[in-house]
Amino acid sequence: MNKVHSTFKYAFGPGLILAAAAVGVSHLVQSTRAGADYGFTLVWAVILASLMKYPFLEFGPRFAAATEKSLIEGYERMGGWSLWIYIIFTVGTMFAIQAAVTIVTASLAIELTGIDLPLLAWCAIILAICISILIKGQYSALDSMIKVVIVVLSLSTLVAFAVAFFDGHTPTITEAPSIWNVAGITFLIALMGWMPIPIDAAAWHSLWTLERSKQTNHRSTLKESLLDFNIGYIGSAILALIFLGLGAMVMFGTGVSFSSAGAAFAGQLIDLYTQTLGEWAHWIIVICAFTTMFSTTLTVTDSYPRVSREIIRVLNPGSVKISRIFSYRNLMILISLTSVGLLYITGSQFTYIIDLATSLSFLTAPALAYINYKLITSDQIDKEFKPKKWLIVLSWFGMIFLTAFALTFFYWRFFM
After folding, report:
1. DSSP-based three-state secondary structure for 407
2. CATH topology for 2-415?
3. Structural domain boundaries in the chain
4. Which of 38-47, 358-367, 370-379 has the lowest mean pLDDT?
């Protein structure tokens, strides 16, 4: 009992932050769309993607617990090629991802408050709130806020699912269209790309693990770190299945044509839930949807400046001047302003960038998976911290799976 109490007191936190980052566009939009368009027939895709990515995301807290270093520092020590692959992918997608989650959160804020400001203004307000939460407390503020948000999110999602289930909303699986065509494969790749979270988030988790150790003055053991990770990761995968189930039970077979715009989709989603379950369920759905997206926006607002600062530190060791210029606070403000600028420029066409970002996440997953595998099996890790045989075997299955689906995407996209 004392060991369990110690784990929750000192190590518990980074796993929940990972879950909060995961449960966003991938769950609210992509999982719900999967259920709405295909019923329960894509449950296998959610489970398989979560299982096949598990080792490579688990290596983040494992590496941090073993070495007291981030994955980013591990990449640099392993060779510049691995670090630069990570940098190119991160810089290439972070503004689009930040903007994507913010615009959906902003649209839900309108539903929640009834204040009909321009969407871009709401995006700026949401990011300003996130920055104000993080700028003073940094990790401590993030840790405290996410624990509250995750409880609200989990409870409201479970209530919505229970209501839909007991009201008898059961789709006919045989009516689902085939996924094995160009449009279906494209959606499947986008669904699995962020399911339950992109592999590059392993580096985020390693940094959160190190920050948690600083916050508590306690170096977490491998067992403590992995328990925390498993709670967050498995919980986010279960929530993905619940959102898919909600889409299947409430939306499948309705004939509604969903908007390709994230903001419009969110409004349609809430309206359809309300029409199906009853007006009384409106606020449950709104709170569930808003907390889903706000938790993701908050964690993304923290993760990208944290990762960027670590990259700059690793590339410029010992440079005090550069560290001051590219501080956590300055980077957070810079990335947020750039994301708002991207929203201003792209406007309604922005959802195409979302689709591109989700697809890129999956298509680059084999390379990131291989890098994480090479790092965790390298001589940077002492023997007692290296993965057990079953995890090594699962890693190889995962790399084969991710590569096979990436090749499948190219085949269906360009040769069918």
Report:
1. helix
2. Amino acid/polyamine transporter I (1.20.1740)
3. 2-415
4. 358-367
